[in-house]
Amino acid sequence: MSSTGYHELEEAPPPMTSRIEGDLMEISMGPQHPSTHGVFRMNVALDGEVVRKLKPVFGYLHRNHEKIGENTSYLGSMPYTDRLDYFCSMTNNWAYALSVEKLAGIEVPERAEYLRIILAELTRLQNHASLLGFLLSDMGAWGTPLMYAFREREKILDLFESLSGSRMMCDYMRFGGCRVDAGADWLARAKKIVDAFPRFLDEFEELIVSNEIVVARTQEIGKLSADLAISAGITGPMLRASGVNYDLRKVDGYGLYPRFKFRVPLGDHGDCYDRLMMRALEMRESIGILNQAFAQIPEGPIMNPKVKVRAFRPPVGEAYGRIEGPKGELGFYLISDGTPNPYRYRVRPPSFINLTVLEDMCLGHTVADVMVILGSVDIVMGEVDR
Predict the structure, then answer these.
(1) What percent of the chain is predicted at pLDDT more than 90?
(2) Residue 93: which H helix or E strand, with range?
């Protein structure tokens, strides 16, 4: 006991030299920030304007998604998957349906497989177009590029609404097929939109790809090496921008993708510009896949009649199903104990995994670059926090 009446510490508390001496300035960016793409916070230590440390802080949007899944019937979780990446409910549905079908050994009719591919590639188009618009906004180009992207996105959301009854929370897939069929009129409207999409891409690329400001703000910024991307489990356009040829549509060949001819674009530098270009090039490939699907889709049922929607009980076992979502590998791991609810329900969201290397990409760049780097990752906090 000291003369002051307080117990003396055995060891002096760690000095906060960086703050006291003024070498580094610590700032908290978010969780409410116009460029954090949702309720997301970064604790950043700056040397002048240069980033020396950066720690992402997650969890503001945590909703107990996985525990809800373990206390809900298998089918009851389908609409909850819409809310993970709320830009991509169709692909969320597909990844979950694929996992349950793998767990229960369910086959899917051919027409339903084609519909799933059509809806997944339409989802990729609207996701990537929106990402480019948001990325330009992160660079300061408020309004025009994003509105161009949203103009095209609205056309696709109109299609989703007319087919599923909802623009964003589609709840469309079912175990063993799809909820409703797409008529000839819907397919004709979809084809018309896809046929007009290359013109939009031409204009959009002319606007941004060679733009001096875009080039200056993205090339050599936020580089991610192939080795780090692989060891961190990065997937999707972000991985391919680093030059790694890995696309689950090719690797797993799920659905009917082996029937389709398409290329997997790859980057050379792994910087923000390559990540931007990945989205533009992948949209070109999606248009090719869609045109093949429109030409090949057969008539027939869209649901496996053997699947019981009510009182669905898969056999005891476990399964992991995954797809190539617009943001990367989206997977669901399920354990069945033979009851109507999953014993374990686990989501592998690409946004969360891809965010883990944010600090590595930001170190040495300015604080203004952080927003561009974060924008190039393409995240939705609904699936990061779950």
Answers:
(1) 56
(2) helix 89-104
Measure the CA–CA gap between 36 and 358, rounded to whole angstroms.
12
CB-CB contact of 125 with 204 (8 Å): no
Number of other CB atoms surrounding residue 193 within 10 Å: 17
The strand ranges marked E within the chain are 25-29, 41-47, 50-57, 173-174, 177-178, 317-325, 328-336, 344-348
Terminal CA-CA length for the chain: 49
pLDDT of residue 17: 47
At 311-331, the pLDDT tens digits run: 889 999 999 999 999 999 999
Instruction: Enumerate residues 6+ apart whose C-beta is below 8 A from 185.
Output: none
Q: For residue 302, what pLDDT is reported?
A: 92
CA angle 215, 216, 217 (to 5 degrees): 95
Cis peptide before 31 (omega within 30 of 0): yes
CA 379 to CA 382: how far, in whole Å? Answer: 9
Residues of the chain with pLDDT under 50: 1-2, 4-7, 9, 13-18, 20
The partner residues of 174 in beta bridges, in order of sequence, read 177
Q: Distance of CA 19 to CAs 55, 209, 275, Å?
A: 17, 41, 35
Helix pair 272-296, 367-377: axis angle to 10 deg? 20
Q: Give 171-220 pLDDT, tens digit per residue.
A: 899 999 999 999 999 999 999 999 999 999 998 888 888 888 888 889 98
Q: Is the dihedral of CA 243, 248, 252, 255 positive or negative?
A: negative
267 token code pair:
């980057």
C-alpha to C-alpha distance for 38 and 116, rounded to whole angstroms: 28
Token pair of 68 as six digits = 């809800």
Here the contacts of 265-268 (C-beta below 8 Å, separation 24 or greater) are 265/240, 266/240, 266/241, 267/240, 267/241, 267/242, 267/243, 268/243
Give residue 14's pLDDT.
Answer: 46
The predicted structure's pLDDT at residue 20: 46
Does the pTM exceed 0.90? no
SS3 content of the chain, % helix, strand, coil (to 5): 50, 15, 40
